[in-house]
Amino acid sequence: MSIYRFTVRFNLENEQERRAAEYLISINRSDKKSRNRFVIETINAYFAELENEKQDNELLEKIRQMFREEVQVVPVAYSLAPVSAKAELTETEKVKNAKSVLDDLEMFE
Questions:
Q1: CA–CA separation, 97 vs 103, rounded Å?
Q2: Which pLDDT does position 11 carry in this prediction?
Q3: Of 4, 75, 95, 106, whose CA is between 20 and 30 Å from 58?
Q4: What does the alpha-carbon distance between residue 98 and residue 109 come to, in Å, rounded to a whole number?
Q5: Distance between CA atoms of 43 and 8, rounded to whole angstroms?
Q6: Mean pLDDT, the chain, as a whole number?
Q7: 38 with 27: CB under 8 angstroms?
Q8: 89: which residues sit within 8 A by CB, 6+ positions away?
Q9: Percentage helix, strand, coil, to 5, in the chain?
């Protein structure tokens, strides 16, 4: 069996290091997990998460690139609905229009 040993020292005056040391001290042996096992699992989980995040970012970038490429070839078509104008005014509209024109002309007198 090949064993790699690694020693860690915690500066208890440093808040982050002190908290990490307290976590390790508080590991409950009844969980059937040694401090060694805890450190190994934590390191592996951390690096697995980094790898997953990297893969997610790469996948997201590939999807964005594919979307950009596909959107570039999609023709953009739009049409303005023809505006239909009334050919004839109703009698009421004709009266209102005539009165409006006469009112406007009175301003010039």
A1: 10
A2: 96
A3: 75
A4: 17
A5: 14
A6: 84
A7: yes
A8: 97
A9: 65, 0, 35
State the pTM of this model.
0.50
Q: State pLDDT tens for residues 25-72.
A: 888 766 667 888 888 999 999 999 999 999 998 999 999 998 888 888
Q: Which two tokens stand for residue 40?
A: 């190994």
What are the structure tokens assigned to 38, written together? 């805890």
pLDDT band at 93 (very low <50, low <70, confident <90, very high): confident
First to last CA, the chain: 113
34: left (phi over 0), alpha (psi -120 to 50) or beta: beta
Whole-number Å distance between alpha carbons of 79 and 100: 35
